[in-house]
Amino acid sequence: MANKSLSNIIVLISGSGSNLQSIIDNADDIGVNIQSVISNKADAFGLQRAKNAGISTKVIEHMHFASRKDFDHALIRYINTLNPEIVVLAGFMRILSADFIAAFSTNTSKILNIHPALLPEYKGLNTHQRAIDAGDSEAGASVHFVTNELDSGEVILQKSVVIDPSDNADTLAKKVLKQEHILYPEAIKKVLQK
Ligand code: GRF
């Protein structure tokens, strides 16, 4: 067996964790060791996915903290104990503070996010409905570096899908999510190869 050194990453989730699952399934090919999966919600299904894969999990619930800053500092303290190369946001539904972003956007670590739109179009929420309402012929997903401005950091990779006349926000979300599962492993690999 090849003696390749793996890059340590952690994954932050809030929900289903299907992107997490894709990263778990492709970890060998990407060349990563997932040190921990962190959720801000105790009932996130992604925690079960991590446990099934034998990955350690940590719940840090934002509602138990008085402020965004306090929550972010609890996250920073925990993540600092792991010293990951990449902090992967995969359906993590919290906006992170400047302190968090500065802590892990360094020479030795980066923060990545996946957004279900072809950035710079449709930052924020309800991306699929907005693309349909605008009469767009295509939609997609982007993996980007996280900066202080929401969904605005440098795009690493994107994948697009065709919007069919029969699509609604749900069918489009499913089509895009399928592409996300291919896109995120590719984007992490690309960042690590730089
Ligand atoms: C994905 O569509 C992702 O782009 C968005 O939230 C969804 C998370 O899905 N940020 P999952 O939890 O990975 O299944």
Structural class: alpha/beta
Structurally, the number of domains stands at 1
Mean pLDDT: 96
Global outline: globular
Beta-strand share of residues: 15-25%
- Based on CA atoms alone, the radius of gyration comes out at 16 Å
CATH architecture: 3-Layer(aba) Sandwich
**DSSP helix count?**
7
CATH superfamily: Formyl transferase, N-terminal domain
Fill in the CATH topology: Rossmann fold
Task: Walk me through the structure.
- It is an enzyme of class 2 (transferase).
- N(1)-(5-phospho-beta-D-ribosyl)glycinamide binds at residues 17-19.
- This is Phosphoribosylglycinamide formyltransferase.
- With 194 residues, the chain is of the alpha/beta class.
- The protein has one domain (7-193): Rossmann fold, CATH 3.40.50.170.
- It contains seven helices and seven strands.
- The chain has helices at residues 18-25, 27-30, 45-52, 68-80, 98-104, 127-133, 169-193; strands at residues 7-13, 32-39, 57-59, 86-89, 110-115, 138-145, 155-162.
- Strands 3-2-1-4-5-6-7 form a seven-stranded mixed sheet.
- Helix 5 links the parallel strand 4 and strand 5 (110-115).
- Helix 1 (18-25) packs parallel to helix 7.
- The two termini are 24 Å apart.
- The model has no long low-confidence stretch (mean pLDDT 96).
- Bound molecules: 5-O-phosphono-beta-D-ribofuranosylamine (GRF).
- 5-O-phosphono-beta-D-ribofuranosylamine binds at residues 13, 15-19, 90-91, 114-116, 141, 177, 180.
